[in-house]
Each structure stands twice: as structure tokens, then as C-alpha cells.
Write a structure and sequence with these properties.
Layout: E1 2-8, H1 14-28, E2 35-41, H2 53-61, E3 83-86, H3 89-98, H4 102-105, E4 108-110, H5 133-162
Parallel strand pairs: 1-2, 1-3, 3-4
Length: 163
Amino acid sequence: MYRVCFVCTGNICRSPMAESVFRARVAEAGLDALVEVDSAGTGGWHEGDGADPRTVAVLEAAGYEQDHRARQFRASWFAGLDLVIALDAGHLRDLRALAPTPEDAAKVRLLRSYDPAATAAEADVPDPYYGSRAGFEQCLELVEAASAGLLEAVRETVKEHTA
């Protein structure tokens, strides 16, 4: 099983959105028996909470399913993960610092690095938490745009491992 974990700050907005979108893409590609998708936060402020209601509303309006409970990312998880997807540069830095080995740190990538239209100045998925629903809709657009490239990268890696 190839394991992907999306990570944002509190695990109630961006990372559960990315988890839902990518899980749907994995299922559409017929890879759900080979790829496991989940999410976490760099902090534990919201552990046990569901996704932000605005995240839920935007996902449901776009036809995505979600059943989420927030949790905090732990360094010990690196051993069981193949790819850790950070939603912004701060998460990338925090996760790489948390990684027990250089090999674990190399598993951490920025989500928008998989979007060919994103420039280096646009590498982050902005945090919509303190804004309006429009910020959550923009978040979904950015997540969807990067998901195709991420799916292709994961598909190629899974093919290599199963060949």
C-alpha cells in the first residue's frame, strides 16, 4: 500500500479538503486498493474535531465526500508514509524539521509543486480559515489543480512498485 498524508496547520480546512479531493481522484483512477490517503495538522488544537463547516459545504457542493476527524501529525508516522504533502511553505519547513531522518525529510513535498501552472511565488495554498467562503472555494480550486499532477506522480510510483 502506498500511503499519502496531507498536512496543514490545524487539520480542519486545507488538508481535509486535499484528502477528500485526492481520495476521489485515486478512486476514479482505480487505485484505491493500492493508495491510502489521509491528513493531519502540524498542531493539535482541533484534534477530534470535524472539518470546518465551510470546508464541508464547499466539498459537498463540488460532489466530494468527507468524513473527517482532525489529528496532529507525529514524527513516528514518517516510517509508514511514502509521501507527506505540505499545504504551504511553513508546513514544509515544520515537517522536514520533524523528520527523524534525511530520507523521511525527502518524503515531504509542497502540494502546489504538482501544479504546472503554479509559480514559485504561488507555491502555498492560502489558509482560508479567517476569511469568507470564497477563500475555501479558492482553496478547492488550487487543490484540484494540483491533484492531477500528484495523481500522475503517485500512479508512476505505484506502477514501479507493483511491476
